[in-house]
Amino acid sequence: MEATQGHAHDDHHDHAPQGFGHYFTTTNHKDIGSLYLWFSMIMFFVGGFMALVIRAELFQPGIQIVNPDVFNQLTTIHALVMIFGAVMPGFVGFANWQIPLMVGASDMAFARMNNWSFWLMPPAAILLVGSFLVPGGAAGSGWTLYPPLSVQGGMSVDMTILAVHIMGASSIMGSINIITTILNMRAPGMTLMRMPMFVWTWLITAYLLIAVMPVLAGAVTMLLTDRHFGTHFFNAAGGGDPTMFMHIFWFFGHPEVYIMILPAFGIISHIIPTFARKPLFGYASMVYATASIALLSFIVWGHHMFTVGMPAAGNLFFMYATMLIAVPTGVKVFNWIATMWKGSMTFETPMLFAVGFVSLFTIGGFSGLVCAITPVDITIHNTYYVVAHFHYVLFSGAIYSIMGGAYFWLPKWTGHMYDEKLGKVHFWLTTIFFNLTFFPQHFLGLAGMPRRIPDYAPQFTEFNQISSIGAFGLGISQLLFLYVVIKCIRGGVKAPAKPWEGAEGLEWTVPSPAPYHTFETPPSFH
Amino acid sequence: MNSAHDVYYVPAPSKWPVVGSTALFLLALGVINLLHVGRTQGLMLLIAGFAVLTYMLFGWFGTVISESEGGKYNAQVDASFRWAMGWFIFSEVMFFAAFFGALFYARQLSVPLLGDIDNTLLWPGFKPNWPSEGPYLTTPFHPMAAWGIPAINTLLLLSSGVTVTWAHWALKKNNRSQLIMGLAATIALGLLFLVLQISEYGEAAFSLSTGVYGATFFMLTGFHGFHVTLGTLMLIVILGRSAKGHFTPEHHFAFEAVSWYWHFVDVVWLGLFIFVYWL
């Protein structure tokens, strides 16, 4: 992959505006990418703080730190903040920074709307996190907002509903922007099947977002009218059904799970070939696997509801459809391993996170398969096994890829190399404490400990204490990540245009840091 | 297309996004205050939110219109607009899908299940017929008949699809008077639809709280009516721009986007007519 540089004239009119004020009006994809990434970082610590209060409460049986109401509020808002505040904006930050650089576009297709997508996030976050301060506290219904709890809650539930509406509008606009940029602004010569994998995964993710965010908006709108305007969508007395909400919610919710992992697959598909110094094994199969996962995600939502009393035929259908997803996911994992096979491998921090991702995400994938088996799920539904499962796919999946991707592209974004030694320390601390936190939760779940309960039977104490110690270690280790990022922004060894020997792609043809404007005339891509 | 040099137009920094976010934040606070704090605070915040939103819409669309008329959008930018409008309409389709999903779920699953043998002890004597207000509510009601106003409304919207296409043909032949007549006729049909819809609501012998029938009826027709209102406003803007001499036979994506949107609300109506009123 070779590219002629379309940026030779950039240097003399590359005036990056100074000061924070310009971020309010900016139309530059790099500015907006940075805004998203910092927003994601802040929300990661906000949500992480809530997780630590939860783990502190669970350090021993009984009620010590927070009352059960506040505990429910913390689990609810921790999840919403991490999903909508940390993981999704994190990936949108990567999309903003990388997609125009990777496809050779001058900016996103709709630069103003791009900024609007970002600036909808802070008001939504204020509504969501600020709801702790209103009478009655935050929403305590769980992030899934199931009625009747969510119909009975106080004004914080309305704040949460409106926050979801605003974040949904942001996601839809962001996705339209990303799809349009990818479909319409690729450099000449970059056919669809020659696009970088990260671009492919975001194309498919954006499609999923546009398909399901409006469905979530519809679901929470029905909640709002059930709460205040006398409708009976989710009330059996009027012919409705709370289970109907669950079906509509999970029609959004399962694709949402893949919205949070497909861009991760994309990032990993760049890091592994770079540090194995081999092209990605099975590029076309990676594309088809990503598309298959996305399409299958629309017909598996019922596996979140095996215990609600669906007919056996329904449970069977959702069980088999879910297990089918293991096929394209397996294709991906084997492709990453085959990429490493006989590669000339080095283990810089991004590669450590990528290898950690492949190992630990696969554990989460397998525990997902366990959960997909209806009769097994009936016993582990709503236990800590499920908590362990989705933290293995979301933390050691989505968050590992965000961190690995950040280390991978920080030299391009900041112009400096990050501190490799501290990066490696960060990876190992994270990996040790992550497993210490979440691995014991498998055993707790299998032993029958229910989730979302602040108290537990005394025989669960030891594993909970291990988990809580791990959680505090994990949380504190992330301050090191913040430190490494700030240190890298402020200085360090000057990064060359292509800091990684094995890296490929248009983004490495521009200088580091990437100039404020790049590819104002499209590069030619051979 | 119209640009002197073929570079993708990236706009200068703009205040409109932050103004728009402020508007939505004020509107959200207004709703919350209206529901929980007090009518006055709520209404004041809502009015402020709508004022800021209107300011943003005029400012932002005004900027885009002057950029378009100023020839800043080349063929590639035009293609971006086409992709974006298509995907936006797809998102709207999925929004309506949530409510159609609720309707089908209620008709096929929740109401029949409430009347089946497992629930006779809980809800004795409940007949699970559609339309239903559920087993507990007992206010008598009459469902909306399909072959009165709704059938007339179907004809109106289908005709408006014809008139907007007639206007589009005129624009492509640069026949400005036929363009304006076609747009005016489309707007008139849209307004007539809305008037009839409001009078139908006035005559309805049930309400939003008439069980799941009332809920699905008013949410589906209400959101559709809201979309017709938006579409009509958009058509009025296009009519105003046509009268001012905007658009050329080759370069008129704003017109096409609005007509796509109009056809979309038309198709949604056909779904409503069949599944909400008729069957």
Task: Output the keywords.
heterodimer, A: 526 residues, mainly alpha, Cytochrome C Oxidase, Chain A, 2 domains, 17 helices, 65% helix, B: 279 residues, Helix Hairpins, Four Helix Bundle (Hemerythrin (Met), subunit A), disordered N terminus
What does this structure look like?
The complex is a heterodimer of chains A (526) and B (279). Chain A has 526 residues and is mainly α. Chain A is built from 17 helices and no strands. Chain A has helices at 29-57, 68-103, 111-119, 121-130, 149-152, 155-184, 197-228, 242-259, 262-276, 283-296, 312-324, 326-340, 349-372, 374-380, 384-414, 420-446, 461-490. The radius of gyration of chain A is 23 Å and the shape is globular. Chain B has 279 residues and is mostly helical. Chain B has 7 helices and no strands. The interface between A and B is large, with 73 and 63 residues.
Helix fraction bin of chain B: over 70%
Strand content of chain A: under 5%
CATH topology assignment of the largest domain in chain A: Cytochrome C Oxidase, Chain A
Query: Unreliable stretches of chain B, pLDDT < 50, 5 or more residues?
Result: 1-5
* Shape call of chain B: globular
CATH architecture grouping of the largest domain in chain A: Up-down Bundle
Count every beta strand of chain B, where a strand is a DSSP E run of 2 or more residues: 0
Indicate how many domains the architecture of chain B comprises.
Answer: 2
Alpha carbon gyration radius of chain B? 23 Å
Please summarize the sheet with the most strands of chain B: none
Query: What do the pLDDT scores of chain A average to?
Result: 95
Low-pLDDT ranges of chain A: 1-13
Strand percentage of chain B: under 5%
Order of helices and strands of chain B: HHHHHHH
- Overall geometry of chain A comes to globular
DSSP summary: helix tally of chain B: 7
In whole angstroms, the N-to-C terminal distance of chain B is 49 Å
Number of strands of chain A: 0
